[in-house]
Amino acid sequence: MIEALDVGEALLFSAACAHDDSCRVVTGDKRCVQALHQSADPVARTLAGQILCLEQIVRSFASSGLYEQVRQSVVRSPDVDTTINTIVFSRGLSTPKPTAIEALDSYIRKLRQQTGTLLAPGV
């Protein structure tokens, strides 16, 4: 078992490994994905391209025509996710869509560098 993973994440990863490639793991815990990448655990190979981080989900919704709803929800709930609230929507309800999308893309690129092939591609 990978030390940096808590029991819940270990169960999620284990359940995902038991399914075919159509199973995805959605997590807001970037540290656990980084720890999985850094480990030599075979689970990392099995889950390559199968993990979605919160920023990927938010980006998908925001770019699909739901930007206004996403922005309002995040700005009205600042304690939900510090990164998304303070970096992506740093100008609150005045944050333009291109600014938020670029911030999300930048964050996701950085996370991909830290997690290898674990994050789902194309999101």
Summarize the structure.
The chain is mainly alpha-helical. Helices cover 60% and strands 5% of the residues. It has one domain (7-115).
What structural keywords apply?
mainly alpha, two-stranded parallel sheet, 2 strands
How many strand segments?
2
Strand percent estimate: under 5%
Can you list the strand order of the major beta sheet?
A: 1-2
**How many structural domains in the coordinates?**
1
Gross geometry: elongated
Poorly predicted ranges:
none
Structural class: mainly alpha
Task: Please give the structural blueprint.
Blueprint: H1 7-17, E1 25-27, H2 30-38, H3 42-46, E2 51-53, H4 54-76, H5 82-88, H6 97-115
Parallel strand pairs: 1-2
Helix pairs in contact: 4-6
Protein architecture, described:
It is a single chain. 60% of the residues lie in helices and 5% in strands. The chain has 123 residues and is mostly helical. It has one domain. Strands 1-2 form a two-stranded parallel ribbon.
